[in-house]
Amino acid sequence: MTATKVIEEIKHLPPAEQSQVIQFAFELARTRQLLGKELSTLAQRMVDSDDPAEVEKLKTALARGFYGN
């Protein structure tokens, strides 16, 4: 099943079940480890940034993406 098909199925769910899907997606995004390419992209953005607040945010995202939470 493709992502497009899954999304179409979700659109037809009742609101309460859509809410469960949304909660699952947020939890999955929060806990999954990132792929090497995703980590590299975040690292490059961190190196290129001149904004200290953005650098800290990216450091946190890198650690979470590497360890999975």
Structural description of this entry:
The chain has 69 residues and is mostly helical. It contains four helices and no strands. It folds into two domains: 1-31, no CATH class; 34-69. The mean pLDDT is 93.
List the helices and strands and how they pair.
Elements: H1 3-11, H2 15-31, H3 36-48, H4 52-67
Helix pairs in contact: 3-4
Which labels suit this protein?
single chain; 69 residues; mainly alpha; 2 domains
What structural class do the secondary elements suggest?
Answer: mainly alpha
Question: Distance between the terminal alpha carbons, to the nearest Å?
Answer: 27 Å
**Shape, principal axes of CA atoms:** elongated
Number of E strands: 0
Compute the gyration radius: what is it? 16 Å
Q: Fraction of residues in helices?
A: over 70%
- Unreliable residue stretches: none
Strand content: under 5%
Overall pLDDT: 93
Count of structural domains: 2
Please provide a brief summary of the model:
With 69 residues, the protein is an all-alpha fold. It is 80% helix and 0% strand.
